[in-house]
Specification:
Elements: H1 7-12, E1 18-20, H2 29-37, E2 42-45, H3 51-64, E3 69-74, H4 80-89, E4 94-98, H5 103-111, E5 115-120, H6 123-131, E6 137-140, E7 146-147, H7 153-163, E8 168-171, H8 177-185, E9 190-193, H9 207-214, E10 221-224, E11 232-235, H10 238-247, H11 253-260, H12 263-270, H13 293-311
Parallel strand pairs: 1-9, 2-3, 3-4, 4-5, 5-6, 6-8, 8-9
Antiparallel strand pairs: 7-11, 10-11
């Protein structure tokens, strides 16, 4: 059976070059452990949660698996400083970061033996993270769910690969082996998927959330929050439409921020269509069924390997 190995597998001690995205209030210890047990890198999302919650999820993951796990720290969180210390105290193997610049934490994390893999959405940030000693980079295109940048994955990944000597993980718009193969053709040495794992058996989102993903269409997502400087991609629900109307209808920034506060938790825990924000990448329509996380990891790699092999035969 054909398989894909890359430098990122050796660096992190994982079997397959597949990361599970750090989705706030979604990527908990149970899901992360399932992905890691399946040979990928499971990542616990800190999101806006307090440090005590993150520590609890780390313990849950460690009780399930002895494979490497990661923690994603959302740098806009008011608890970011506390969580930055927790990952050191709990001897987490990998830290990924998002929604900001992790420069002030990197030295301490590296000194603790943690592999630091920031999410970058621009060449400038990729170069800075390389200079500061990051272990690898996640180049995330605007097709992804949650906080998004301006550039698409197709455009961003090769530019990041050209700008750094570090291994690059491609993220955004990847749902199956075709996306994995495309990422490797662009120069990546691994992929990160978020939305695909929303349909994992071990993903404990509300059944309404999961049903929305499984019934999604190609034009199911939209981006809100640009006016505040923190654009977010989510499903095109009643909440998203009303938020967009308020955003461009002159609502003051403070009220806009208040409108979004807690919206993701309402979607994840209660399936609330009126007040909940259902984060999703553009690939939601490609998620066809619920299945074990380990099966997802193995399936996308097994699909990608023959595609990459065929690609080498196109040039004579």
């Amino acid at each position: 059976m054909l398989m894909i190995k890359s430098a990122i597998c050796e660096m992190l001690g994982i079997e397959y070059p597949v990361f599970q995205g750090g989705m706030a209030w979604i990527a908990d210890g149970k899901l992360a452990a399932a992905v890691s047990d399946g040979g990928g890198l499971g990542i616990i999302a800190a999101g806006n949660a307090p440090a005590s919650y993150v520590r609890q999820q780390i313990h849950i993951a460690k009780d399930i698996t002895n494979k490497p796990i990661g923690v994603n720290i959302m740098l806009l969180s008011p608890f970011a400083d506390e969580v930055a210390k927790v990952v050191i105290e709990e001897k987490v193997q990998v830290v990924t970061t998002g929604a900001g610049n992790p420069s002030k934490y990197i030295k301490e994390w590296l000194a603790a033996g943690i592999k630091v893999i920031p999410v970058v959405a621009s060449v400038a940030l990729a170069k800075l993270m390389t200079r500061l000693g990051a272990s690898a980079l996640i180049a995330e295109g605007g097709e992804s769910g949650g906080h998004v940048g301006e550039l698409t994955t197709m455009v961003l990944v090769p530019q990041i690969c050209d700008a750094t000597t570090l291994p690059v993980i491609a993220a955004g718009g990847i749902a199956d082996g075709r996306g994995v193969a495309a990422a490797f053709m662009l120069g990546a040495q691994g992929v990160q998927m978020g939305t695909r794992f929303l349909a994992a058996n071990e993903c404990d989102i509300h059944h309404i959330y999961k049903e929305k993903i499984l019934k999604a269409t190609d034009l199911c997502t939209m981006v809100t929050g640009k006016r505040l400087g923190h654009p977010v991609r989510s499903l095109r629900t009643q909440f998203a439409r009303e938020y967009s109307k308020a955003e461009y209808g002159g609502m003051p920034n403070e009220e806009l921020e208040e409108l979004a506060t807690g919206a993701l938790r309402l979607a994840v825990q209660e399936g609330d269509n009126k007040k909940g924000c259902f984060l999703s990448g553009q690939i939601a329509a490609m998620v066809k069924r619920e299945q074990p996380a380990a099966e997802i990891v193995k399936e996308v790699v097994e699909e990608a390997a023959p595609i990459l092999l065929r690609a080498s035969q196109w040039v004579k």
